[in-house]
Here is the input.
Amino acid sequence: MTEPELRTETVPAAPVREAPAMTAVRFAALLYVTLLVLIGVGVLGGGLFAGWKPYLVTTGSMVPAMNPGDLVITESIEPGEAFNPPTIITFRDPGRGLVTHRVVKAERVPGGEVRYTTKGDANRVPESGTVGQGDLVGSVRFVLRHAGKPVWWAQQGRWGPFGAWALLSLGAVSLAAGLLRPRPEPGGAA
Here is the structure.
């Protein structure tokens, strides 16, 4: 006696649907990664095409206009260009390096040079010296809040927040990549 042949039919599996909450998390991750890319491209592109340069704010002297960890985007100046109060400028200070403060007074001195008295918004009094044209780097066009925080954390040796940011960013990239990955067709090969 022969055994009957067993036949099985293959039924296509229903597509696995991701939970709406997970889709929302992936979408938020994609927005975060897109924002990082846009900031990077904007800062680099602005630097290449518009003469903009980013500088990291490292002190609280300009609070509330800017905080440590913000990026200021500074536009290069033209020779002989002058600024009036309350323009915010970035300049070289021999004792401190690059400084970004607000112009509180601009005056032309004998010989035609304009000299600037500056003050940090959080400081009680203006700087004791003046800034000459040769020390100017440029004028601040805009501030990117918190965009430089990871660099500032690293400079300060604050490895806990830096590590948390790095892990969250890597996770966001991974989640965003999952959202962009093609989904298998129902009943088709993966």
